[in-house]
Predict the 3D structure of the following.
Amino acid sequence: MPTVPSASPADDTATGVDIVALLERGRTMSTPVLRAAVDRLAPPMNTVAAYHFGWIDAQGRPADGDGGKAVRPALALLSAEAAGAAPEVGIPGAVAVELVHNFSLLHDDLMDGDEQRRHRDTVWKVHGPAQAILVGDALFALAGEVLLELGTVEAGRATRRLTTATRKLIDGQAQDISYEHRERVTVEECLEMEGNKTGALLACAVSIGAVLGGADDRTADTLEAYGYHLGLAFQAVDDLLGIWGDPESTGKQTWSDLRQRKKSLPVVAALAAGGPASKRLGELLAADAKSNDFDSFSEEEFATRAALIEEAGGREWTSQEARRQHAVAIEALDRVDMPGQVRAQLVALADFVVVRKR
Amino acid sequence: MPTVPSASPADDTATGVDIVALLERGRTMSTPVLRAAVDRLAPPMNTVAAYHFGWIDAQGRPADGDGGKAVRPALALLSAEAAGAAPEVGIPGAVAVELVHNFSLLHDDLMDGDEQRRHRDTVWKVHGPAQAILVGDALFALAGEVLLELGTVEAGRATRRLTTATRKLIDGQAQDISYEHRERVTVEECLEMEGNKTGALLACAVSIGAVLGGADDRTADTLEAYGYHLGLAFQAVDDLLGIWGDPESTGKQTWSDLRQRKKSLPVVAALAAGGPASKRLGELLAADAKSNDFDSFSEEEFATRAALIEEAGGREWTSQEARRQHAVAIEALDRVDMPGQVRAQLVALADFVVVRKR
């Protein structure tokens, strides 16, 4: 099993790639097109969307908010380069994927009742549920518009892949919600859900630029295999951060996923592990599911559950799973003929995803 | 100004077209494909969608529910024929438009707090808000999938038109919601909102089959002009039914739009008319907007408002507006070269839309 480089995210020592610059390129090249697309929305949806993206604050004043890590735009531009096209060719794909990603965040935050994202109140909290639904819908529609107005056969193929990925993303959210109400979820079910919820759209980010650049379906599918497993690695790390992440870095509450009774990977792995800690955890969570006081649980009560998950091996298993998925992602890259520098950057991004702290 | 034929909907005497058969053809040809598309959804979304479409009841038993008038599928098949193609060519378009239409119903019912549709409890009421959001999202995604998997250039053009129409539909819903919180809305603002909310998707239904059948953009645009004005006529009649419709026929509450403080055409026209009834109505609605007892208003209080709207001329103006839009729609048909029988059917459908009782 390969080990993940312990390099700082800013400079991947294994590849010599400057990750910060790579993410910044994706953000810099795609944001103006993204903002122009969002500006097409009728008021007040344009304002609500601008708030969501962190471009303005809740009072409508210009802000330089945290728009997220922007991993997907960086991937979409590399995707075009993987097919031998200029990075610019991937821009509409980068924008469309970001629009779909943010459509899902707007709706998921409302469905999940999440009050904070990227250190700020969520849209439904500030502007109400109707705006969260409407603006989400509008971003999803804009995604198709941005691609299809290119008017090319490639744009149609790219939109089809994006639509399929979006359906999987919705399937994943449906599974995620249904699992919260179930006492037991298997590790396989959890991985399937996470593949849908996170893997599918990351996969699309990695194929969409290539498709716009004229890549054939086999190349696109192989790039998607890299993206899908990258997504699973990403989500495994997210699940670790959702329990043990530093709220200062993640912008979420402490024990965030436990507060939401998420059946995330560390939890399902711990429950499946057997042994005393696993058994005790199962008893506690079963009682929690029936508890009327859950919302007033103290920090200590969540800390107890987190400690049991760790003792049962759920934290270590998830950490290993991130590395397993990372390895499978990297292997897929060997099956596509692409410029060496592009390959190195995709490897570096995969490394970054696994070592990130937010 | 042309008068609308007073024929029964079942047999338009002006054209000799059997409207019931025409609507039934659209339903019969598109429903199996629609059901197959919905069956692709992961549980429980497939079940929730099947409930929404009236195929099963709230307990999951097969039902033969009211799936709506199915005007849009009928139009999409005629649209293909208008371009000289077989009606079957329009089926994916009919299905995609129905999916988008129902996506918007699912989300709008939740945003508007509507508890009844087609004589049954709405999805958010039966299955909860999260399912209404999720299944709506899934239907929207399916719409793109159904078209784009055709893999043709025409499918890309059709999807682009559908996406643009969907954006307008979302704009219209955003305007509709914002108008509910405003004291005054002009007739022009109301017409713009209704054009977005109803006109745009009906327009797309009338162009989508033709585009799939290879029609050029000019033909598609002219067909859309017919559909857009048909949509405005449709909505004017809907606004009349929303106040004076028979609950037995419409499946909605009495005074449905007044209960929701909708600034629909009869209301805004009455407020714009001037005169004593208009003034009194304005005073009442302004007081209603600040009232804490609005939800417990009696039938009589709504009847008083409806009578004032009628006295101020809002009912008659809206009725005339339906006829004006009907006439503009019919005129557009003269600018497209199409088989005479297809033209007669499109005329008959426009007549039906204006005389319908539900």
Q: What stands out?
A: The first helix of chain A runs from residue 19 to 39. The radius of gyration of chain A is 20 Å.
